[in-house]
Design a protein that fits this description.
Length: about 140
């Protein structure tokens, strides 16, 4: 199973960032997709290429600020679990962690690259926080 993790430290309160990430129907507002449609816990995500992925949203936990989903009904992807966590670092900063586990392994790299692009968009939107000895 391929496993990928990406993260970004943002200059915004965790609850504010979760207000964006914790809405699975609004993925297209920050992730490199062109459309998102939800019916119940099923989400359809349209990529810029026109390819549509069907996903089951497994968990939206507002207390943990965790979103889990899996790609389903896809002949190429036999197993998948994706997860976003938004964790407060201070009252004004947080870290967003994305992880995915996928079969076939190589596709985890593609999803991880898209997640990295989504995290860069969040950095542009909220600003990148500089923690500890890190210099801007």
């Amino acid at each position: 199973m391929g496993s990928v993790r990406r993260s970004a430290i943002l200059n915004a309160p965790a609850d504010e960032v979760w207000g964006v990430i914790g809405r699975p129907e609004a993925l297209h507002e920050w992730f490199p997709t062109t459309a998102t449609r939800m019916e119940g816990t099923t989400r359809w995500v349209t990529l810029p290429t026109g390819i549509v992925f069907e996903e089951d949203v497994i968990l939206v936990d507002n207390d943990l600020r965790r979103l889990q989903y899996r790609i389903v009904n896809n002949p190429l992807i036999t197993q998948h679990l994706g997860m976003y966590d938004v964790i407060a670092l201070s009252p004004t900063s947080c870290i967003v962690i994305y992880s995915t586990d996928m079969v076939p392994d190589v596709l985890a790299l593609t999803v991880g690259a898209a997640a990295g692009e989504g995290l860069r968009h969040l950095e542009e939107r909220f600003g990148r926080a500089h923690i500890g000895g890190e210099q801007p």
